[in-house]
Amino acid sequence: MSVVSPDRVRRWAAELEARVPRYTSYPTAPHFTGAVGPDTVKDWLGALSTARPVSLYVHVPFCRKLCLYCGCNTAIVSRHRPIGAFADDLLAEIDLVAECLPARLQVAHVHFGGGTPTALSIAELAAIRARLRLRFDIRPDAEMAIEIDPRGMNRRLADALAACGFNRASFGVQDFDPDVQRAIHREQPAEMVQEAVAMLRAVGIARIGFDLIYGLPLQTVAGVERTVELAARMHPDRVALFGYAHVPWMKPHQKALERHALPDASQRWDMAEAAARRLMAHGYERIGFDHFALPGDALAEAQRAGELRRNFQGYTTDRAETLIALGPSGISTLPQGYAQAVTDTAQWRKAVRAGELPVARGRALTDDDRLRRAVIGRLMCDLAVDVGNVARDLGRDPHELDDAIERLQGLAQQGIVALDGWRVRMADDARPLVRNAAACFDAYLAPEARKHAVAV
Q1: For the residues 26-47, what does the mean pLDDT come to?
Q2: CA–CA separation, 30 vs 41, rounded Å?
Q3: Domain check: are 249 and 370 in the same one?
Q4: 423-452: per-residue pLDDT in tens?
Q5: Which long-range contacts (CB under 8 A, 24 or more apart) does 162-168 make?
Q6: Is residue 361 domain-resident?
Q7: 174 and 291: one domain?
Q8: Most buried in the list 64, 177, 236, 430, measured by CB within 10 Å?
Q9: For all residues of the chain together, what is the average pLDDT?
Q10: Could you say which DSSP state residue 73 is in?
Q11: Are residues 87 and 9 in the same domain?
Q12: What's the confidence (pLDDT) of residue 15?
């Protein structure tokens, strides 16, 4: 991989600090409105094709401890009772959604996220799995993934996850440095994570992913490299390397991290690229701008075949056009547009118990949205896109995106992208700035948008 000179990084300072979306959807969630509500989504669900498989996402909004870096929709609970009540309501929501569908649809991917999905009891996990299988036709080869907090892992839970059919798991590792862990309130020694991984592999759950974060307080380049070395020794199939999103105006608890000096944009860049070099030295292929996978993993194979996709879980092999989200704050992707559930768990519960789809807001897609979404998706996945080909495939005129090509000129002058007519390609050493390039196609993004995290 190319190494960027310090002078060039300094010249890119404004782009490194630009606040841009992660583009797991387009339009992005801040532009959803209340114009999409329960009745609209009921119609959208009823119009789904029975010939195509869908995917499911289950959001569990509870954790046992607060991690100070967290930007997820979750609540901290010390007793199990709220989790048990949530599980009962989730079963009811599954039924509500299923009753809107034209048939018992096939499912190719299921992902449990949070929060901490393993905060659910073994019996609750089994009940949710049984209800999903009752209401949907989950294919025998479906990917069943779950996010796990290694601090709560034990052999009994590993056995239960295998019995429920889970075949992929991801661990929130973040960083292995003890000082960093104490600062972010996420203490989990490498030995604990290694033991948790071994438990899963012993019961046949062999596909393992790690989440790592750079840009945390007290992190250094050397410390991030040590974390990567320890992680690589455990041979996860995939690694997601996320930049810490410091958004205290959205997540007030993050202000507690400001008592430590947070790395600046240049330091964040150095951490990200040092981690990337270490991962590739261990044989991982770089996927998009922030994922890594071993060559035999399906994610790496999809990238080589030009079939990589991006959804709310990041880079994925999931090719389903429809993703149905369950649980508070979950965002569904449907052919007609996006729908987000009520974020507040109490309000979500109230809607479900009233027999209503707990939809808070969404966005119906226009033809312009579909064109820009297709271009952004290919650019985010392939780091290159032929705008003309994408437009023609959708029966559109590529000149509709003249505004975006004009905005890209500034990045081209900085050597971040190369432009050749309608063809756009990220420079090899500017891969982490692909979100900045994608933002040039975003018709909704305001230049002063503070609601997003920094680019790198």
Answers
A1: 96
A2: 19
A3: no
A4: 999 998 899 999 999 999 999 987 655 566
A5: 162/203, 162/204, 162/205, 163/126, 164/125, 164/126, 164/129, 165/129, 165/138, 166/112, 166/205, 167/143, 167/204, 167/205, 167/206, 167/207, 168/143, 168/144, 168/205, 168/207, 168/208, 168/209
A6: no
A7: yes
A8: 236
A9: 93
A10: S
A11: no
A12: 78
Give residue-wise pLDDT tens across range 214-253.
999 999 999 999 999 999 999 999 999 999 989 898 899 9
Q: Say how far apart CA 148 and CA 291 lie, in whole Å.
A: 18
User: Tokens 């608890």 appear where?
Assistant: 253
For residue 419, give every residue at least 6 positions away whose Cβ sits within 8 Å of its Cβ, in sequence order, or none: 405, 408, 409, 412
Which range of residues forms the domain containing residue 74? Answer: 31-326
Cis, peptide link before residue 236, omega less than 30° from 0: no
Beta strand segments in 296-365, E? 309-311, 314-316, 323-326, 331-334, 337-341, 359-364
Write the pLDDT tens digit of every residue in 115-166.
999 999 999 999 999 999 999 999 999 999 999 999 999 999 999 999 999 9
Indicate if 17 and 48 belong to the same structural domain. no
Residue 133 placed within a domain = yes
The verdict on residue 335 lying in a domain is no
State the total domains in the chain.
Answer: 2
The pLDDT of residue 210 = 98
Domain membership of residue 356 (yes or no) is: no
Backbone dihedral region of 407: left (phi > 0), alpha (psi from -120 to 50 degrees) or beta? Answer: alpha
